[in-house]
Amino acid sequence: MLEPKKIHRRRQHRRRSACKGTAGRGTRLAFGSYGLKAMTGGELTARQIEAARKAITHTVQRGGKIWIRVFPHTPVTKKAAEVPMGQGKGAPEYFAISLQRGTVVFEMDGVPEHVAREALRRAGHKLPLKTRVIVRSRLP
Predict the structure, then answer these.
(1) What is the domain-level CATH number for residue 69?
(2) Alpha helices, H only, the chain
(3) Residue 73: inside a domain, yes or no?
(4) Cα gap 96→47, rounded to integer Å
(5) Which residues touch 135 (CB under 8 Å, ≥6 apart)?
(6) This model's pTM is above 0.85
(7) Which one in 70, 109, 110, 120 has a CA-CA gap of 20 to 30 Å to 79?
């Protein structure tokens, strides 16, 4: 699973308001010919990204090349069950990323279009966002 090697602070604010609005960067295909674009904002965990990646690799039978365009940097903390109020913030549980609408999450290349569309469609089902498969426009 994706996780930072080293983090500056163990506990951070989650910046859930960062999910609002439209992304200004990372909205176009940079590496591959096919991509999965987030149509709504939200938070993705490392487990969800890994589940989507596995769905893609399973569908393409380990062919082609896949790029993951997002990385979960933000630690999300959780307090133990039945802990009273106070006593500070909980321990880090997992890592997540806040995504804005329009961000490209995955890209792929090296497979036929119908295979890529099916793989990215299945990956989209693993994510808690509405997604769309995008294709690089070919100039004649």
Answers:
(1) 3.90.1170.10
(2) 46-59, 113-125
(3) yes
(4) 9
(5) 33, 34, 35, 113
(6) yes
(7) 70
Say which amino acid occupies 122.
R
Which of 22, 25, 51, 56 lies closest to 39 in space, CA to CA?
A: 22
Residue range(s) defining the domain that contains residue 97: 41-77+91-140
Q: Which two tokens stand for residue 9?
A: 């602070």
Domain count, the chain: 1
Integer Cα distance of 128 and 115 in angstroms: 22
79 has pLDDT over 70 = yes
14 occurs within a structural domain: no
Residue type, 12: Q
Residue 139 has pLDDT above 60, yes or no: no
pLDDT for the residue numbered 24: 86
